């Protein structure tokens, strides 16, 4: 499979099972003239490159069916003869520094923590592919993903409350991290600040009273957002 001409748009594969994060990336790339495909699992990523070789792969570390680095290993092994390997960039909800040696062994030098702004994403594509992207349309990714974020909030808030009641702070923190990324990608700064405070309380292992106040403060702000009172 031959690589594409420098006159063709960059080709990017986004491998991410978090729907809001993935749609944000896909929308940003698509509206800026970049050929983009999305995969929500390791299997989907492997199937995608069977007939479409990307210039750049944005790879989440935590996928539902396999580890992101294992997907990269398999992708590197299944490249057609003579094909140039794509550039791999890790995107993760948590700091991937603990896996630095594994990243280096795979030749990966960039690992980013979500959320990733639209401009930073475009800069990564430009640097990795050495191609200039065209100016995007007036439709912003935030406009497209806000309904998904509202649905995510309605689902995750009750889950978070159950984890807090069960004193399962690790799972509660995982949900907070997801919602923080979604807040940033939809521009909900007030709600983001509430979740940042709750995240700090969880990280500091605050007492039940402090955690309850932080949670219900975030919940109230979320309900106002859901009902359109921004």
Word description of this protein:
The protein has 230 residues and is α/β, with parallel strands linked by helices. It folds into 2 domains: 11-129, Rossmann fold (3-Layer(aba) Sandwich), CATH 3.40.50; 142-226. The chain contains 9 helices and 5 strands, in the order βαβαβαβαβααααα. It has helices at 19-30, 42-48, 68-77, 100-105, 118-129, 141-165, 169-186, 189-203, 208-226; strands at residues 11-15, 35-39, 56-60, 87-92, 111-113. Strand 3, helix 3 and strand 4 (87-92) form a beta-alpha-beta unit. The longest helix has 25 residues, at 141-165. It is globular. The model is unreliable at 1-5 (pLDDT under 50).
What structural keywords apply?
Rossmann fold; 9 helices; 2 domains; alpha/beta; globular; 230 residues
Rounded Rg: 19 Å
Order of helices and strands: EHEHEHEHEHHHHH
Proportion of β residues? 5-15%
Please name the CATH architecture of the largest domain. 3-Layer(aba) Sandwich
The global form is: globular
Q: What is the highest CATH level, the class of the largest domain?
A: Alpha Beta
| Biggest sheet overview | 5 strands, parallel
Structural class: alpha/beta
Taking pLDDT < 50 over at least 5 consecutive residues as the criterion, the unreliable ranges are 1-5
Helix content: 40-55%
Spatial strand arrangement across the major sheet: 2-1-3-4-5
| SS field, number of helical segments | 9
Mean pLDDT: 86
According to CATH, the fold-level topology of the largest domain is: Rossmann fold
What's the β-strand tally?
5
Could you give the distance between the termini?
50 Å
Going by CATH, what is the homologous superfamily of the largest domain? Answer: Response regulator
In total, how many domains does the architecture comprise? 2
